[in-house]
Amino acid sequence: MFSSGTLALSGMSLTVENGEFISLLGPSGCGKSTALRIIAGLGDTSSGRIDWPSSRINARGLPEGDISFVFQEPTLLPWKTVFDNVYLPLRLRRISRSAAKPAIMEALATVGLQDFANAYPRELSGGMKMRVSIARALVTKPKLLLMDEPFAALDEITRQKLNDDVLKLWKETGITVIFVTHSVFESAYLSNRIVVMKARPGRVHADFPLVTSHKRDGHYRTSEEYRQACEKVSNSLIEAMGGEEH
Questions:
Q1: Tell me, what's the pLDDT at 64?
Q2: SS3 for 207?
Q3: Which end of the chain is more exposed for a tag (fewer CB within 10 A), N or C?
Q4: Are residues 101 and 189 in the same domain?
Q5: How far apart are CA 140 and CA 69, in angstroms?
Q6: Domain limit, last residue, from 141, 157, 192
Q7: Dihedrals phi, psi of 38, to nearest 5 degrees
Q8: pLDDT digits (tens, 9 = 90+) for 60-70
């Protein structure tokens, strides 16, 4: 509940398994971003709790160093190079620049920006800035990656390319991803599980797996299987917005 008295989430229960790619989908104001921030420890709950299956719990009840967050905007420091922007989380851990360099260059290589380590944010496109933000999130090698509509402000071509990049990262690293989006098409393309939320207050309306028999790539985007997946997700979202219950 917010200080204004608005109840953002109510009765929301969600179990996240290791290695899943979950999309939280729903209308504006349904609490998707609030749920993500609570998971990240960036907001407190007025009731309820989060249980972590980890022995490395810090004083705030969060797994120490196991979570990274990619926000809607890249939030890069304009006076810092790409290298130093990615270095920031390791610097906060008091790791020297020289000791951190291999991890930083590995993270930049993962997002295809190893040749831009000395560039400044003003020299990058919107998509490249978001890649830097993702590299910064990955440099600590988290087990859980939280992404809050990271591609919403990008053009469709860049968005599709970054969708492919994130899928590749997920498959290569085995990381668990919780991804907030307004897009039916994006959620159906990226996820192996979709959680559709209702608004006022935010809660789970539907929770279902999305398994495909095809590799998710440009061909999949034009396949009948993808069309059917989008239709299933869209129908569930329409139900959630229309106030119908399962």
A1: 59
A2: strand
A3: C
A4: no
A5: 11
A6: 141
A7: -65, -45
A8: 555 555 889 99
Q: Which residues pair with 69 in a beta bridge?
A: 146
Question: What confidence tens digit (pLDDT) does each residue in 222-237 have?
Answer: 999 999 999 999 999 9
Q: Which helix (H) or strand (E) holds 98?
A: helix 97-110
Q: What is the tens place of the pLDDT at every residue in 85-117?
A: 999 999 999 999 999 999 999 999 999 999 999
What is the rounded distance in angstroms from the CA atom of residue 41 to the CA atom of residue 50? 10
**For residue 246, what pLDDT is reported?**
39
Roughly how many angstroms between the first and final C-alpha of the chain, as a whole number? 25
Contacts of 26 (CB under 8 A, 6+ apart): 32, 196, 197, 198, 199, 202, 205, 237, 240
Q: Is the pLDDT of residue 193 over 70?
A: yes
- For position 164, which CATH number holds? 3.40.50.300
Q: Is residue 71 part of a domain?
A: no
In this structure, what are the phi and psi dihedrals at residue 110, rounded to the nearest 5 degrees?
Answer: -60, -35
**What is the share, in percent, of the chain residues with pLDDT greater than 70?**
87
Q: Are residues 147 and 175 in the same domain?
A: yes
Residues 149 and 137 in one domain: no
- Do 150 and 199 lie in one domain? The reply is yes
Element (H, E) at 133: helix 126-138
Which range of residues forms the domain containing residue 95? 76-141
Give the DSSP per-residue string, 143-204: SEEEEESTTTTS-HHHHHHHHHHHHHHHHHH--EEEEEES-HHHHHHH-SEEEEEETTTBEE
